[in-house]
Amino acid sequence: MQAFIFCGEGLELQPFSHAGREHVGTGMPKALLPIGNRPMIEYVLNWCDQADFKEINVVASSEDVDLIQEGLQDFISLREQQFGVLSKALASSTHAHHLQTPKPIKFIGSKAATTGECFQKELLERIKGDFVLLPCDFVTDIPPQILIEQYRNRDSNNIALAFYYKNGLEIADKRQTNKQAFTVYSENEETDFQPVLLDVYPTEEVKKSKSLRIRTHLLWKFPNATVSTKLVNSSIYFCTYELCQLLSDKKPKNDNAKNDGDEDEITAKNASVIKPNYFKSNNELIKDPINANKSLGKMFRDLARRSWQHSKNRETVGMFILPEVGAFIRANNLNAYTEANRFLLRIKAHTMASNAQTTTASASAIGADAIVGPGCTILERSNIKLSAVGANCVIGNRCRIAGSILHPSVKIEDEVLLENVIVGPNAVIGKKSKLTNCYVEGSFVVEAKSTLKGETLTKMYFEPDEDYSDSEAIDSDSDEEGDYPEEYYEEDDDAYGDDDFFQR
């Protein structure tokens, strides 16, 4: 199978991602945001290596693809070095045939506005068989073999298999509550068929209409439908090759063309026939107009609706709910991003907390559930717990950092208290400051003795006024009154009055 990893802009991860702020952004591409002091996309690439996919493709916007490729150079080189060490160690072993070379990682720049448009117009020609679509922001300990086996054992009429997981995070940020959705699916408890995704309703639409309107045609075909608000789309889709034929913009060739022995006509005739599925006896596919100029989640929602909207049945989108025995977190918002870091801190703290390149005062304490990057300086009587400190950070005397994330090159001055805070790169926190549940943009300077709670600290940028024309400009070199407009000499009596501004 081919794997395609989509690297989004990270609108919900602002101000640490530079989404929507290309002209002045101080952030970084979403795929390179650190989780446990490693770019989040590295965890997805390691997961793909376990699955042994035929090919791994990283899809990002044309502006970000070079930055992502540059940021992964150390990971790619380390990946090759590890394979070299293992191959030498197993050279004389009888199990050497089990060792496989790392699959190549290709970087694809996209100019499309949405992921669905990118998939339809830029990736369909690259797909040669069954494939999987992945996000760049998930962290899990569930092995990929579980997902692959579920896909292999899918029902014969499934054109794709979507994976969902139960949201176990407590949403502390009220801005994230509207991101939930009402997921409609068929449980199929009394049959051998797998659950089928039927429809998805955003919470905002349900709140506006004050009711959940489920279509009657859906209930006719699936009377055992279930509605859930706890399921979250993982954006992991295992797809058959038939999906490419369905979404292809190319018109099918004429099957009634006469066969005069010409190989081109034979090839054209065979091109219109869908490749038969391994589990499917009937390979006929009815092509419906599918609008792919939207996100992948909405595109697969339309594919799910396609199965029951028509009088005749269409191919369904299967659904599998990930078991709760394993952990699965999508770091697609700031709250989940913090929880993903804490999940890894509990696992990797014992091996990464004591770094030889970190300068730590003897009176300072670094908890077992904390990670400190290389090149950091921690002065006396500072305490770090359940936090990830990036490389080259400076932490002053008598500081307390708990449940926080510090990006590289952050400077924390003396007697600072941070609780559940994310600090961007090159930011400075002044002396005796106390921050709780705050987000600090990169290169932002927090003044000394600041006490803040639940704030997002970002810089203010002012764009120049493009409507300012030369005809309205005042010539500073001229001394004659005639060179100035008449409005320049008019005085407003209220302009110099007291408007209570200074009093406020």
TrEMBL record:
UniProt region (Disordered), positions on chain: 463-504
GO biological process: cytoplasmic translational initiation; negative regulation of cellular response to amino acid starvation; regulation of translational initiation
Compartments (UniProt record): Cytoplasm, Cytosol
Protein family (similarity comment): Belongs to the eIF-2B gamma/epsilon subunits family.
GO cellular component, one term: cytosol
Positions of the EIF2B subunit epsilon/gamma LbH domain: 356-447
Protein name: Translation initiation factor eIF2B subunit gamma
Gene symbol of the encoding locus: TDEL0A06540
Keyword DNA damage among UniProt keywords: no
Highest taxon above the source species: Eukaryota
Keywords: Cytoplasm, Initiation factor, Protein biosynthesis
Main subcellular location: cytoplasm
Gene Ontology MF terms in the entry: guanyl-nucleotide exchange factor activity; translation initiation factor activity
Classification via SUPFAM superfamilies: Nucleotide-diphospho-sugar transferases
InterPro entries: eIF2B_gamma, LbH_EIF2B3/5, Nucleotide-diphossugar_trans
Subunit and interaction comment: Component of the translation initiation factor 2B (eIF2B) complex which is a heterodecamer of two sets of five different subunits: alpha, beta, gamma, delta and epsilon. Subunits alpha, beta and delta comprise a regulatory subcomplex and subunits epsilon and gamma comprise a catalytic subcomplex. Within the complex, the hexameric regulatory complex resides at the center, with the two heterodimeric catalytic subcomplexes bound on opposite sides.
Organism: Torulaspora delbrueckii
Name of one Pfam family that matches: LbH_EIF2B
